[in-house]
Write a structure and sequence with these properties.
D-Maltodextrin-Binding Protein, domain 2; 5 strands; globular
Length: 139
Amino acid sequence: MNQAYGRDPRFTRLPKTLRERDYFAHEHVVVSYAGDARGVVEDALGMPRKVRVSVSSFAYVGDLVEGTPLLATVPILIAEHMQKGHPHLRARPLPIRLPKVPIELLWSKVKDEDGPSRFVRGLVARVTARPAVVSKGKT
């Protein structure tokens, strides 16, 4: 999975090509289901970031980054989706190499047998199991 960092250029002046030292010098939003200040970068590289905010879902990242100097490291698909709701945000390739990380589908145990919830989980599993369709434009 490709990773990107998101930022709001109105509040964070960064070069188009971010260097590793610049990346680690900024404050970050981290998505952590455990609620701690560790994310995929810390786990993969063993290098700490300056974590300002930790959230449990990617759904909150765009709102937190927009209007601030914070950076967020997210899957490219999430970054593309965030830009639809937050047109000021910009995504760029990471200056570091991360291993592929699986996307996990989490839910509360009380929803295990809930019919609508099971339907949506099954739909998400089927859609994400398909190979990605790449559009190369009109020929």
